[in-house]
Amino acid sequence: MEGQRISVNRAPCAMCTTKNKVCRRNCKSALYFPAEKQREYESAHELFGTPTIMRMMRSADDEEEMSMLASSILMEGEAWTKDPVKGAFGIIQKLKWKIAMRKIYLDELHEKIKAVRKETKLGL
To answer: What are phi and psi for residue 83, nearest 5 degrees?
Structure first.
């Protein structure tokens, strides 16, 4: 019987919960926005709104694209929660800065290694 309430095995998906709808057994959103991702979905919902998320998901051509899109939507929502001013851009900036600092540290370590090797070869 198509369109029944969900079975006891699965909690309502994040999208249906946010929309206060009954999550049907054949709910397509449950695949991409499971109950475990409720917090992430709420962040995405605040950023995009459920109608926009639904429109974006309908624009995907296949299952793989829908999966990647859902993941991107959830990550973008989380990014704006973590950095409300710059969102994902701010997170990327911070990561690039950390990489640059690690490279500087690594270069310093390489120089120290060279100096120790040089001392060792000279027998000092």
So the answer is: -135, 85
Contacting residues for 88 by C-beta, under 8 A, at least 6 apart: 75, 76, 79, 80
Q: Copy the structure tokens of residue 19.
A: 């929309």
9, 30 contact by CB (below 8 A): no
Q: Hey, what are 103's tokens?
A: 């490279």
Whether the pTM exceeds 0.90: the reply is no
Q: How many residues does the chain have?
A: 124
Do residues 91 and 83 lie in contact, with contact meaning Cβ atoms separated by under 8 Å? yes
Rounded distance between C-alpha atoms, residue 27 and residue 89, angstroms: 33
Number of other CB atoms surrounding residue 75 within 10 Å: 15
**Structure-token pair, residue 101:** 């600092």
pLDDT digits (tens, 9 = 90+) for 45-61: 999 999 999 999 999 99
Q: Name the band, by pLDDT with cuts 50, 70 and 90, for residue 92.
A: very high
Q: How many CA atoms lie within 13 A of 72 on its CB side?
A: 10
